[in-house]
Every structure is written in structure tokens, then in C-alpha cells.
Amino acid sequence: MLTKYTKVLNQYDLIGYYLDNRAMEQIQSFFDTGVDRIQITEIIANQSADIIKETYAQLFDEQPELLRPGGNSYTTRRYSACLRDIEYYLRYASYSIMSGSTQILDERVLYGLRDTYNSLSVPIAPTVRAIQLLEEVIIDKINSNDESIKSIISVPFEYLIKQLSEKDL
Ligand code: CYC
């Protein structure tokens, strides 16, 4: 699991260079956003149950067919798998925010996920919607006008959405 900071160090180690201005800027921005990332991560951790509840309530309100016979969240087993997946997305997004890097999402969440979803007929579009809702609910809860806070929150969710939506993985 890499943070933005160790990722930069690794890159320079690979080519055997001293850290230059570009490296310093990246490391500086990691430290400059540190307090914000800690606060966002704390809010997510403390309010995770509410965030998840609001997300699935809205998802099933918008797409009630998911819960009906033939829907992918129909039966309690699949319903709980869906809630569990939403919880995974939130938890790993919080790790990603704290580490300032999306690498953990590739490694722990996205690797092989589309194949798994395709083979189990888990629909991608409503999954993407659930991830968007998580992002919206958190931004709403944090209720900040600071664009840099919003963009820190958005990074992992937008990354998950982009990677899940890629057609030819
Ligand atoms: C299933 N979701 C799965 C499975 C995996 C994941 C591996 C298959 C195995 C299982 O059922 O447990 C996802 N596993 C993960 C992820 C990680 C992991 C992300 C990283 C930590 O280890 N169905 C819907 C909704 C959506 C949904 C749109 C919720 C947003 O209708 C999810 N995922 C869903 C469902 C299943 C599933 C219903 C069970 C499908 C089935 O067995 O028929």
C-alpha cells in the first residue's frame, strides 16, 4: 500500500535520482493537504453508518427494480452483498483519501472486479450510481464551500467510477 509520498520516493529510487523540484512539489502538496485529509477521513469513519444508509436508501428509491424479483439485489443474500459492497467502496475510499493516492483502489478493490460483476450479473450502472451517491452524501455532510475539500473527497469516487465504467478492461 503506497501513499502519495512513498510513491514519489519509489519513483526516484527506481531511476536513482535525487528528489528534484517536481518531487518536492508533490510531497509538499501531500503535507499541505494533510490536515484536511485527516478531518475528512475522521468524518467518514464517524458517520459511516449514516452515509451508507443514506446512499442505499436513495439508490433503491431511484431504482426500486433492483429489489424486485429478477433484480440483482433481490433476496436477502444479494441485498446484503450489495450493502457490503457499498461499505467496501466507502472504507477503501477513506483509505485512499488518507494516503493521497488511488493505488490502494487498484490493488484491493478494482483488480478483477468487473469480471466478477459480469460473471454474477451485478449491473455496473447502478453500482456506479451508488458510488456517486456516496460521494454526494459525504460532500453534503461535510457542508463546506471550500472547493479543495470537495475535490479531495471526489478523487477516489471519481476514480472508482472511471475504472468501473471502462468498457474494455
Ligand atoms: C457480489 N461483490 C460481489 C462479489 C464480490 C464483490 C467479490 C462476489 C462474491 C460475493 O458474493 O461475496 C465485491 N469483494 C468485492 C469488492 C471487494 C471484495 C468491491 C473489495 C474489498 O473483496 N448488486 C446490486 C447493486 C450492487 C450489487 C447495484 C450494490 C451497489 O444490484 C452488488 N455484489 C452485489 C451483489 C452481489 C455482489 C448483489 C452478489 C451477486 C450474486 O451472488 O448473485
What can you tell me about this protein's structure?
The chain has 169 residues and is mainly α. The chain has 2 domains: 1-32, no CATH class; 34-166, Globin-like (Orthogonal Bundle), CATH 1.10.490.20. Helices cover 77% and strands 0% of the residues. It is built from 9 helices and no strands. The protein has helices at 4-15, 21-32, 34-46, 48-62, 76-99, 103-110, 113-120, 124-142, 147-165. It is globular and about 60 Å long. The structure holds phycocyanobilin. Residues 66, 72-73, 78, 81-82, 85-86, 88, 108-109, 113, 116, 120, 122-123, 126-127, 130 line the site of phycocyanobilin.
Question: What is Rg?
Answer: 18 Å
- The sequence of SSEs as H and E is HHHHHHHHH
Assign the CATH architecture of the largest domain: Orthogonal Bundle
End-to-end C-alpha gap = 22 Å
- Count of alpha and pi helical runs: 9
Q: State the name of the first-level CATH class of the largest domain.
A: Mainly Alpha
What count of domains describes the coordinates? 2
- State the CATH topology of the largest domain: Globin-like
Strand content: under 5%
Globular, elongated, flat, extended or rod-shaped: what is the shape? globular
State the low-pLDDT regions, or none.
none
CATH-assigned homologous superfamily of the largest domain: Phycocyanins
Q: Sketch the major β-sheet.
A: none
